[in-house]
Amino acid sequence: MQMSIRPFKAAARPLAFAALSLAIAGALVAPNAAHASAFQLKENSAKGLGRAYAGSATAGGDVSVVANNPAAMSELDGTYFQADVTAINFSAKFSGSAHDVLGRPISGGNGGDGGTTLPVPALFFATKVSDKLHIGAGFSVPFGFQTEYDRDWVGRYHGVKSKFQSLDATLSASYDVTDTFALGVSAIAQRTSAELTSAVNFNAVGLQVQQGIQQQVAAGVAQIQAAIAAGQIPPAQGAAMIQAAVQQGQAAAAGVAALTPQGVDGFARIKGDDWGYGYQVGGFWKLTPNDKFALNYRSKISHRLEGTGKFTTTPGYDLLLSNPQLAGSLPPFSDTTGTADFTTPAVISASYWHQAEKFGLGIDFAYTKWDVFKELRVKYGNTQPDSVEAFNWRNTVYASIGGDYYLNDRVTLRAGIAVDTTPSYNAVRDVRVPDSTRKLATVGVGYKASEHFEINASYAHIFVNQAHINATSSTGDVIEGNFEDYGNLLSLSAVYKF
Predict the structure, then answer these.
(1) 140 with 170: CB under 8 angstroms?
(2) pLDDT averaged over consecutive 10-residue blocks of the chain (498 residues)?
(3) Which residues, in sequence order, are bridge partners of residue 317?
(4) Contacts for 99 with CB less than 8 Å, ≥ 6 apart
(5) pTM for the predicted model, two decimal places
(6) C-alpha–C-alpha distance, residues 424 and 439, integer Å
(7) Is 202 exposed, middle or buried (0-12, 13-18, 19+ CB in 10 A)?
(8) For residues 324 and 244, what is the distance between their CA atoms, to the nearest angstrom?
(9) Torsion angle defined by CA atoms of residues 247, 248, 250 and 254, in that order, rounded to the nearest 10 degrees
């Protein structure tokens, strides 16, 4: 009786691009870059960071309002250039264990420190065109991260390296509708790029093939037994046929097991990018001579990431693929193209500032619509069926309070605190998103060197709640444990007024 595993084809084929699917998913959701929840970045103003972004659109004298609330350009009397850079240091350390689909421990360490240190730049220009009209332009990074674990760590089937970045080019305008109210709008062009890697568990693929062989053997034995019961095959001949089928199946399964041993992995790498476009609308009110209030809505921006997936196989797996009887049933893990639709979320924010002679006090609130990220569906450039990863994230809240103290005409001291909730939770958290609620404590200082030139510096420490993880990869590998995260931010800026 000749063995064939063709019927197993439908079960095995979705594994062909499992790593590609997970890589793209990780690209879009990993955090570990800054203090904002998930992979959202607020780091576009050293002034704002010093007070935990309280009064981000109302404190005045900050050209980053070009990207944060265009209506607030109404407060900028003249022509300004502002350059900011923030060094982001984030640590993410895992403690726990992992096992495969059979419950066997997965070898490897805890991955080292998955965090990194990266610079985030921002550049802004604003000018007063007339008594009522202001225009501005800006370059900023509203979303981004980079993480990398040891290549042989226990969670390698979930992710190794993750790099994601969205770059915004913003054109803004504001108009003073009345002496106490201004309206602003922005057009946003956003380029998003991703690069991800992860290990491929060929042992799990081999186990699936062996399972398919066992199912075929059982089906063949049942057919023979039915033929014996119907009197179509003599019992002795049927018993011999059953024995031969079982032996052939055992030999085939043993051969697959020998060529796909545990811990001998492949590797997957995905790169992709896309341009998307959005807008924002802001309002700015002078409530009293000493009180200001601002509202801003930033639209979601839709992307279709297009890229390539590259795979590295093993000699044993290549030998299986060279078998004509198996080749049509095994996922080839060959290089291919892929696309994934993704939307960066809408953000609604409010900012308040009270100005006194020796100090200023601000409050900020932001609501980010992460619920737009319900699933990631990857479509492939061949006949491969779509791969779907469910996320079902929750909306998040960012709230801060902080202020300025004017030591003298040249020196300003700043401080603030904030809390930032996370969109992920235990049911959906994975190694690419070991995120949890964050708390910030910030300090800063500004120095006015002249009527035209000002420099600012700020520091923030990020306290992150412990993030528990219990995640299963597409090949059935389970990782369970906790992430201990923290972050540090150091920001510098220079402002020149003509």
Answers:
(1) yes
(2) 34 37 36 53 93 96 96 96 94 93 93 89 96 97 88 93 90 97 98 88 88 88 91 90 91 89 89 94 97 98 88 88 74 80 92 97 96 79 67 91 97 97 82 85 97 96 90 88 92 95
(3) none
(4) 105, 106, 477, 478
(5) 0.84
(6) 16
(7) buried
(8) 22
(9) 130
